[in-house]
Amino acid sequence: MSLKRLSEIQRRPLEMVLDGLQGTDPETSRRAGQKLVGEAKKYGLNLRDYLDLAVDVRASKDADRFRLPNGMAASGYEAALAQLNLPIRNDFRSGVTLQAAADSFDSTPGARGLFPEVIDDMIQWSHRQDNLERVEGLLANSRTVSSTELLSRVVQDDSDALKTATVAEGSRIPVDSIETDERTVRFYKHGRGIRTTYEFERRVSLDILTPYARRIDRQLELSKVRAATNVLVNGDGLNAAAPTKGISEFGADLTGGKTLKDNYPALMKFLVKQAAAGTPVDTVVGNLDSYLELFLMFQPVVGQKSMAEHLQEHGAPNVSLVLPVMQNIKFQLSSAMPAGKLLCYSVGDTLEELKEANSNIEESEKAIQNQTITYLKTENTGYRLVYGDTRTLLDFTA
């Protein structure tokens, strides 16, 4: 099923979008919730994004009621939470608490579709620390697809003119070709869930789920990082695995117990040669041991200066050697990286994440239909390489 365009979403007052959701009849509320989820599903959106686009807060009744403490108008999603007595945190002044949210989910089955979003809001409010490992730092792009997608690769023009952007008058303009393969992008399903019993639901406040949901959120992100790392290292089935180079090729001294932290000149020579080959490195990926090696490499040494620094203090010329392409190289943590290796690449043209449309919204449908409150967080993601020649594995043990 192809997705509808976002421009086709009609903005309507809040009461029209939530029509029937707060009905006194549980079955009516459940049907209204399923209808709302179904509308979001047509566009490949979760309920948070759909409500932001579909609700015209200014056209709603009592629009002044939907204002944030700073005076700004609430978004469609925030207005829906206020209307349904659902919080993003305990707000005792407004009488909206996490216990009241549990009551809302119990009496208004249609509102249970928003359960995953409310739990996520609780996590962000009570736990502001980010995960150590996040997939965003590994990606060039992330987009939503409605069906399977074929793998593709770039076939570069063999003209020598590729070395420059200048094209002589009347000559051929070099053009790279993007070719698709019959093989498809492999999708991974990441997720975990918590189901509460009826007695649990009646007797405890909703915020007791926060630490459990936080663990699920971290596990899901770790799973995505592992899948992305696997494609970066081993290829996507069409583009080959990243080639490996030993740091000793660049003059590293590994004798007498010396490791990566003792061989900064060799690391710099490797980065310079990568840039000279047309594949400059702006991102390195490694595990915690690799992070420690790099951290110790840059620990300060007091009282030692180079000959150039001593001469500059006495009037010698100061040559600025800052190269923008090599100045800001970011380290990304991945526990899935092999020991003793760094994956080095340019992040902007290497890895793309594909999110399968409706994989999240299906869990909202289940939440509405079930009699018990269930927190399920899943994502279906696939990863493909944009260019296959940007990655190099640096083995700092050989």
Task: Provide a short characterization of the protein structure.
By secondary structure, the protein is α/β, with parallel strands linked by helices.
How is this structure best described in words?
This protein has 398 residues and is an alpha/beta fold. It has 2 domains: 1-128, no CATH class; 130-157 and 176-298 and 325-398, phage-related protein like domain (phage-related protein like fold, Alpha-Beta Complex), CATH 3.90.1690. It is built from 13 helices and 11 strands. It is elongated, with a radius of gyration of 27 Å. The model has no long low-confidence stretch (mean pLDDT 82).
Set down the secondary structure blueprint.
Blueprint lengths: L13 H4 L8 H17 L4 H8 L21 H8 L14 H10 L7 H12 L14 E5 L4 E6 L21 E8 L2 E9 L2 H6 L6 H25 L9 E3 L17 H13 L6 E4 L1 H10 L9 H6 L11 H4 L2 E4 L7 E5 L5 E6 L4 H9 L4 E12 L6 E4 L3
Parallel strand pairs: 1-9, 5-11, 6-7
Antiparallel strand pairs: 2-3, 4-10, 6-8, 8-11, 9-10
Keywords: Coiled coil
Protein name: Phage major capsid protein
Organism: Oceanimonas pelagia
List keywords for this structure.
single chain; alpha/beta; 398 residues; 17% strand; five-stranded mixed beta sheet; phage-related protein like fold; four-stranded mixed beta sheet; 2 domains
**How do the strands of the widest beta sheet line up side by side?**
5-11-8-6-7
Mean of residue pLDDT values: 82
Looking at the overall shape, the CATH architecture of the largest domain is Alpha-Beta Complex
Rg over C-alpha atoms, rounded to the nearest angstrom: 27 Å
Number of H- or I-type helical stretches: 13
N-to-C series of helices and strands? HHHHHHEEEEHHEHEHHHEEEHEE
Distance between the terminal alpha carbons, to the nearest Å? 51 Å
